[in-house]
Amino acid sequence: MTTTTRRKVGIAGAIVGAASAGVAGLALAKRLAVGRIRLRPDSEASEPFGELRGRERTHTTSDGIDLHVQIDGPEDAPLTIVLCHGYCLNLESWHYQRRDLREDYRLVLWDQRSHGRSQRAAPEDSTIDRLGDDLAEVLERFVPGPCVLVGHSMGGMTIMALADRHPELFGDKIRAVSLMATSAGKLAELTLGLPAMVSKAVHKIAPGTISLLGKRGSFVDKTRHAGSDIAFLITRFVGFGDSKNVSPTLVDFAESMIRATPTEVFANFYPALMDHDKLSALHVLDPVPTAILVGDKDWLTPPEHGRAMAEALPRASFTEVADTSHLIQLERPAVINEALRDLIKEI
């Protein structure tokens, strides 16, 4: 081996060694950071996340998808609360609402198609309008009397699609609506806190990148567990406004729901969320009491989207919750549950 060759090999080895050391150093720093977070006092350490159960049912939709449904609370309650979860979550995301409201109200919780324990749908059937039709079928089968609809994130969009496609249900059947951390449209214009040029570039490449991930979903899902510490930190930072004080157990619970959602499902619904535009359907909600809630630090469905909905519904209440991000019903359950009880008083 010549001196020049040895020099090149030595330089290459040094670069690879430095890069490996850098990656190892970042991994160690990540583990130490997560470790320190988990050592802090945790008020929710004993909370039975994922352990609450109702009466389990299955509904097969008109296009052949089996939906997992749970009914909780007294069957003879005069009012049913129907809880519609968000993108990449499942019905367990309503843990605190189920825990605190099940004694007084009949609850219907359901996993939207392709989420939780519901059956996977084809990409072409992964649309917000189809979710609205699913909700109409759930109401017809499991809600014999008046009800209140509650939707978080994509669940709020599901309610808007229901309003667009089944307006006759609002007033007699549906007596009130709560929309949390959601949007009537223009999600494709979000800056996500990035500079305008960077945000534009991200939105330009995101559809193709997410589509590619979806096509290789099985492979991606096999590797997601390896990034659990990173996922924990991202969930903590993006999902919770008061990330320094949020319970590590709660973050783990939220992250586990997201990680349990297959990458293909994430990819299949992404275009539907970006194309979602139901601002013109909001007037259907005008006859019923409506409460709009959003966290002031929500990057995914920011406060201006909540304000736009409130402007379209002048009789609706609008609440911007301080130091709160997208997982508002998990981060501020006392605020949310009080808001729901206040909404019910307006019926």
TrEMBL record:
It holds the Pfam family Abhydrolase_1. SUPFAM superfamilies: alpha/beta-Hydrolases. InterPro entries: AB_hydrolase_1, AB_hydrolase_fold, Carboxylesterase_BioH, Epox_hydrolase-like. Residues 80-333 form the AB hydrolase-1 domain. GO terms for molecular function: catalytic activity. PANTHER family: HYDROLASE ALPHA/BETA FOLD FAMILY, PEROXISOMAL MEMBRANE PROTEIN LPX1. This is Pimeloyl-ACP methyl ester carboxylesterase.
